[in-house]
């Protein structure tokens, strides 16, 4: 597997402790799993978690070495490279949800990198936010906003979670999403943020992506999270 995407992200987030919050839709879970695997192979101690909800590890394989659903995670001391999953189980819904924020902040000292799913989009490739989301903790050190490229050319009524309008996902819509207060970059950290347009192995409209209007501080990639490959570094 080409790990260029994950090497690039590691170079952006720095060599020290990192708490990375994933925003948007269209590949957050895949990114979390693949990036955790890459970091573990590089000798890092990695914690995967959520400040919203994720699928139960009984139903989805996160590739974790250990899974915790209670405060016992606080007494576990990772001594070598590992990928650990921590969230609270809700047996009624089958979802795992946000643990105490204080626990996550404390766990930063025990792991080299924490990767946090900070958003939910019900598996759709585009997300429009509300006042309730994304849930990005104040101690986040880097944010990555994700959007699925397979949404381009389709109607928002089919591919955009939280969007009440029925529009085409085109350059105009993507520019709106890049700059609206409830759009793709909501709660991202100025100077410490990136966008990953995921799904480039199947759809990679580089001219369209290069023509969009990005804030000057954002790193932007057209990539395949599944392959770990960058198809185009937009900026």
General description of the model:
The chain has helices spanning 4-13, 28-41, 101-107, 156-159, 171-179, 206-210, and strands at residues 18-24, 45-50, 53-55, 66-68, 82-86, 88-89, 95-97, 113-117, 126-127, 142-148, 160-161, 193-198, 219-224, 229-233. The chain is of the alpha/beta class and 235 residues long. The chain has one domain (4-233): Rossmann fold. It has a 9-stranded mixed sheet, with helices on one face. Strands 3-7-6 form a 3-stranded antiparallel sheet, with no helix packed on it.
Shape field: globular
How many β-strand stretches? 14
* CATH classification, class level: Alpha Beta
Q: What is the succession of H and E elements? A: HEHEEEEEEHEEEHEHEHEE
Share in β-strands: 25-35%
State the domain count.
Answer: 1
Query: CATH topology, anyone?
Result: Rossmann fold
Can you summarize the main beta sheet? Answer: 9 strands, mixed
Summary?
The protein has 235 residues and is an alpha/beta fold. It has helices at 4-13, 28-41, 101-107, 156-159, 171-179, 206-210, and strands spanning 18-24, 45-50, 53-55, 66-68, 82-86, 88-89, 95-97, 113-117, 126-127, 142-148, 160-161, 193-198, 219-224, 229-233.
């Amino acid at each position: 597997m080409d790990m260029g995407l994950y090497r690039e992200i590691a170079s952006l987030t720095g060599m020290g402790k990192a708490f990375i919050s994933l925003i948007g839709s269209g590949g957050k879970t895949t990114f979390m799993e693949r990036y955790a695997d890459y970091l573990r192979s590089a000798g890092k101690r990695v914690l995967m978690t959520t400040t919203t909800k994720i699928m139960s590890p009984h139903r989805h394989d996160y590739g974790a070495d250990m899974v915790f659903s209670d405060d016992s995670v606080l007494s576990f001391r990772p001594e070598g490279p590992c990928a650990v999953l921590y969230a609270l189980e809700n047996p009624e819904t089958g979802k795992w949800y946000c643990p105490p924020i204080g626990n996550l902040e404390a766990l930063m000292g025990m792991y080299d990198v924490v990767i946090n799913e900070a958003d939910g989009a019900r598996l759709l490739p585009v997300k429009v936010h509300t006042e309730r989301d994304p849930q990005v903790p104040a101690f986040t050190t880097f944010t990555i906003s994700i959007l699925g490229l397979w949404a381009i050319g389709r109607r928002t009524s089919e591919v955009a979670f939280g969007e009440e309008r029925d529009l085409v996902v085109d350059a105009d819509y993507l520019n709106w999403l890049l700059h609206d207060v409830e759009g793709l970059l909501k709660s991202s950290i100025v100077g410490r943020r990136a966008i990953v347009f995921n799904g480039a192995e199947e759809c990679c409209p580089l001219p369209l992506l290069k023509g969009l209007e990005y804030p000057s501080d954002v790193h932007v990639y057209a990539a395949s999270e599944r392959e770990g490959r960058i198809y185009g570094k937009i900026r």
